[in-house]
């Protein structure tokens, strides 16, 4: 968090706490030096909190976020490691609609992707498609994405907050199609470059395969190397381990 603040001076950082609600006062106190505010997602299961980042942000915006002044909200998972300011990473992307990594036509990944592959998830996706049509007469084309690093414009959140959205599937399949149905642009973030690629998973994945520190060091030495990695969960001295030779 200290390094993130160095990269983004003056930018408010708000925690979105999805852990045990009884432990929230402890974490709110312990993280107060690093966060401008910490918001607790309440009255949901751990599974709901894990898979519904979009709906969690919707709850935060309804409850507190609408009172703040901002143009865009970036949702950055705790194990998403950045080595460049978001303005540099998104310099050619407008602050409109939403942004998702790994955007691709759903048709290309549906045979392998968990969120439409097995029977239960397929049924939930069919229900979501029906919801999108009944609410906005949207029939595609449908998109798939990965969620780490996604962003929301204020205008989208103001509109999004007006609707009660079913929690079928997860944010990676629901959110890009919901935004399209609502008439908002969905921008491609370049963090995740190729689906179902073991080579790509060395840099960025949602399969719980932690990124190697050596891989990060190697990329940082390249002028055009990767600057965003997920997931990385080690406690490190960034100055010593990753930044000393840059």
SSE topology sketch:
Layout: H1 2-7, E1 14-17, H2 24-30, E2 37-40, H3 46-51, H4 53-63, E3 72-74, E4 81-82, H5 86-89, E5 98-105, H6 106-109, H7 114-117, H8 119-136, E6 143-153, H9 154-160, H10 171-181, E7 186-189, H11 198-201, H12 213-220, E8 228-229, H13 238-241
Parallel strand pairs: 1-2, 5-7
Antiparallel strand pairs: 3-6, 4-8, 5-6
Helix pairs in contact: 8-10
Walkthrough of the structure:
The two termini are 20 Å apart. 38% of the residues lie in helices and 15% in strands. The longest helix has 18 residues. The model has no long low-confidence stretch (mean pLDDT 94). The protein is an alpha/beta fold and 246 residues long. The chain has one domain: Spore Coat Polysaccharide Biosynthesis Protein SpsA, Chain A, CATH 3.90.550. The strands form three sheets. A four-stranded mixed sheet has the order 3-6-5-7. α8 packs parallel to α10. The protein has 13 helices and eight strands.
Question: Which features would summarize this protein structure in a list?
Answer:
globular; alpha/beta; 246 residues; four-stranded mixed beta sheet; 15% strand; two-stranded parallel ribbon
